Amino acid sequence: MKKAFEGMYPTEKINIRKKITEIGTISFDGTGIIFKGQVQAKDENYVAKAAMYIDGKLVETANLPASYRTRRNELFWKYQLPEGKHNVTFKWLNPESNASISFGEALVYSDAPRVNNHQSSTK
Questions:
Q1: Of 33, 28, 26, residue with least CA distance to 89
Q2: How many domains does the chain have?
Q3: Separation CA 58–CA 49 (nearest Å)
Q4: Measured between alpha carbons, how far is 118 from 101 in angstroms, rounded to an integer?
């Protein structure tokens, strides 16, 4: 049986709930991240162009359609990063006054499952 995302474990969910112009820098510890959200525009043919930078380096320039038929529910993602702390920023390359790029949440992944340090006492 083939496993999807073998060696990747979800470790954290970050609630963002902001527009791309309000985000600033998002920091996380791990080896990968997925950003969920959507583009909204009065013109359903509008395609937002946005860039994601991790640790100051351009990782992806994405075309993000506003149309519900062709849009991406995951705005950006990046896997196989070196384990550790990373900083992510975004830049909207073709802003329109009648459009927005909204981020809902981010899912962080690591190469090892999260360890639960809460142990019960059995005295």
A1: 26
A2: 1
A3: 14
A4: 38
> pTM, whole model, 2 decimals?
0.86
Closest to 108 (Cα-Cα) out of 79, 75, 67, 70: 79
CATH, residue 101: 2.60.120.230
| DSSP-derived secondary structure for 48-99 | EEEEEEETTEEEEEEEEE-STTT--SEEEEE--PPSEEEEEEEEESS--TTE
d(CA 36, CA 14): 10
Report yes or no on 123 lying in a domain. Answer: no
| Each residue's pLDDT tens digit, 50-93 | 999 999 999 999 999 999 889 888 999 999 999 999 999 999 99
Residue type, 99: A
